[in-house]
Amino acid sequence: MIDANIILLSFFILSFLAALSIALCHNKRFARIITVLFVAAHAGFTTYTWFHPGETVLGYFTFDKIGVLFLTILSMLTITTVYHGFIYVRKNTPKSFAIYHTALIALVTAMSGAYLANGMTVVWIFVEATTLAVAALIYHDRTAIALEATWKYVFVCSIGIALAYIGILFLGFTVQNADLLSLSFSSVTGIARLANPLYLKIAFVFVLVGYSTKMGLFPMHTVTVDAHTVAPPPISAFISTTLMNVGFLAIFRVYSLFSSTSILPFMNHVLLLSGFLSLLVSSGYMLKAKHNKRMLAYSSMENMGIVAIALGIGGIGYYAAILHIVLHSFTKAGLFYQIGQSYKVMGTYQLDESGNYMNLYPAGATALLLGLLCITAIPPSGMFISELLVLKSMVLQKYYIYLVLTAVLLCFVMYALLTRVLHIVYSQPRGIKSELHERVNPWQTVTQFILFGIVIFLCFVQPIAFRQLLEGIVSTLPK
What we know:
By secondary structure, the protein is mainly α. The chain has 2 domains: about 1-260, no CATH class; about 275-479, no CATH class. The chain contains 19 helices and 2 strands. The protein has helices spanning about 5-25, 30-50, 65-90, 95-115, 120-140, 145-170, 185-190, 195-215, 220-230, 235-260, 265-285, 290-315, 315-345, 355-360, 360-375, 385-395, 400-425, 445-460, 465-475, and strands at about 55, 60. The protein has a two-stranded antiparallel sheet with strand order 1-2. A hairpin with a 3-residue loop joins strand 1 and strand 2. The protein is globular, with a radius of gyration of 21 Å.
């Protein structure tokens, strides 16, 4: 049997060589072949992690349950994102085509490392790497607004990463043993209960604010919204799902480390405040959103707010948070793919110029309606289950004020999404209609139906293995 260290090291080396070869050889066919081989290698590596649960590799990576779960989601969405990316950039120059796929491979590799990293410093390094890769992808279309969004993304994310590093430094103040300077999660767990609570509180706040640039939580949400709006639709799908999962996982791991200490109530209050403010801000902006991708970007912020609230409430909220972020990943990816196709058909992302989509492209309109059903948590959407569990956890923990406010804000979100998507599908354009039209092969929409189908399936059936996996992830947290 091949050693796990060799498997992981080989994956990183092959990923580097794949990205480098595409960057140096500006040939579209070669780039496609190498990218497909990379996707296959990533899927194979993900499968390998399932058969080696809990194994620590190279000293800095561990195949734990939540890391493997998110890695699996990443592997699945990498397949669909690469497929839609091939379609999106097929008319680009060979150089632009190569840059796109080089950055995409680098992003997938960096996120994979962040998911499996077993120490604070290693997570930080890979999260910083995602910033550089995403920046190249945001600027893909080379427009003035893309340049502005790219610089803002790099600047704000760098500040966020710096804040997260300050949090790591405060965490380091609690370490007196030189053997623990790596700040591995297992090492920090043993010393957190004896640490100065003030240092732990400061560390958590800095980590939360810093990694919120990736997760899209208030107050660092603006950069992700702009990135979603400007990036190519397949990349927007990635940023809004797997990259947000990176930010969540970084915060979740620190929360899990400190959950057995005296600062647990403090962390819960901070998460509740951040989550509720994210929900409040996103619902307000969604009511005035006039850009289709920006509308979905604020929807992502709203869902991350729900996840933060669920985590802050605790109890069954832990299970609901993990379930919700899994379902959101599939739903939001499908919606961004579909909005990208709607742009081809209608020639615009502007809401007032959009409309009559059902007549122009029935398959896409049907997929968009199905995605609307899923993202608004209307049965048979699986997100109905996760949001119901969040509301139930509020009742059990007697957070009645949060319950009422959350329910009201979710009504605003549902109204905003329903009115806008139904206008796109059925109404005539209110503004000047674009003359740019392009036919979309209905087979290109199959991936969206598959993703939405997974979300609907999990509303009716949660396989025992899947349920046990989620329960295992939250089993170490306070009941």
